[in-house]
Amino acid sequence: MREDAVVCNGVTIPFRYCHSRRRTLGLTVRPDKSVSVRVPLRTPLHAIREFVTRQAAWITKTWERLDRHVRPPAQSYANGAPFPFLGAKYPLALEKGPLEAVYLRGGCLVVSTPEEPSPPLLAALVDAWYRKRAAELFKERLAACHRRMFPEGTAPPPITIRPMTSRWGSYSYRTRRVTLNLNLIKFPLACLDYVICHELCHVTVRHHGPGFWRLVGRYFPEYAEARLRLRASAPTLQ
User: Fold this and answer.
1) d(CA 19, CA 59)
2) pLDDT tens across 67-77, in order?
3) How many CA atoms lie within 13 A of 95 on its CB side?
4) C-alpha span between 38 and 28 (Å, rounded)
5) 14 and 44 housed in the same domain
6) Strand order in the sheet with 82-85
7) Which residue segment(s) compose the domain that 94 sits in?
8) Do 7 and 42 fall into the same domain?
9) What is the percent of the chain where pLDDT is above 70?
10) Residue 67, burial from CB neighbour count under 10 angstroms (0-12, 13-18, 19+)
11) Burial class (CB within 10 angstroms; exposed 0-12, middle 13-18, buried 19+) of 1
């Protein structure tokens, strides 16, 4: 990627940019406050600078949010430590059992192991449990949202689930694939449905202009509340 910068209202905004096989200009502010821009092939530098300048207010607000953001403490794996799942918190309950297993029971997240588990083993078991629940639920909700938004007989796009550091979801025009942030499994179902609806709207609308948000509102009228919840809980993600 190449480097450049613009100055807007006395603030210097350095950014990195690259040309790619896309049709629109896209900009990302990462958790380290770096700015990256991807643009269509043959886009001249002056047009890239103008684009970054138009986004300057949003970039500086994002930087301010990142400066205010205090990273949460590392997840504890002690008995009774809370674990979020679909908007609720479940205290960890460690038990001995013949097999390694993780499940919800009586309002607790139970982890059963033959021997006393180490923190790395607990982390791996809980992570695998989150991934399994996400694989089941995300596919189900994608199908439900897709049925509501697209004509009968249209197949939903393939889905990828993985941890993401700067986005809750994305839609690829090249592969026609929806990618969802694994951590959405920790939020209320409405937040998951909003992100799925948001990405499915990109199937037909590539930008984030007024027309895009009208489309989101048509299928998910309460999107503003879900969007605010996600931003308040993890302001470094967009």
Assistant:
1) 21
2) 776 566 788 99
3) 17
4) 9
5) yes
6) 82-85, 88-96, 108-113, 101-105
7) 82-129
8) yes
9) 97
10) exposed
11) exposed
Q: What single-letter amino acid sits at 197?
A: C
193: its two tokens: 């449905």
Across 82-107, average pLDDT: 95
Q: pLDDT: is 165 or 16 the higher one?
A: 16
- The amino acid at residue 106 is G
Burial class (CB in 10 A: 0-12, 13-18, 19+), 34: exposed
Query: What's the pTM value of the predicted model, to 2 decimals?
Result: 0.73
On whether both 109 and 170 belong to a single domain, the answer is no
Segment holding 161, helix H or strand E: strand 159-162
Contact 201, 171 (CB under 8 A): no
Contact by Cβ (8 Å): 13, 56: yes
Last residue of a domain, one of 68, 101, 121: 68
Answer whether 109's CB lies under 8 Å from 90's CB.
yes
What is the average pLDDT value for the chain, to the nearest integer? 91
Phi, psi of 158 (to 5 degrees): -65, 160
Residue 50 pairs with which residues in a beta bridge?
none
pLDDT by residue (tens digit) across 17-40? 999 888 889 999 887 889 999 999
* Encoded amino acid at 70, one letter: V
pLDDT at 213: 92
| DSSP letter (8 states) at residue 182 | G
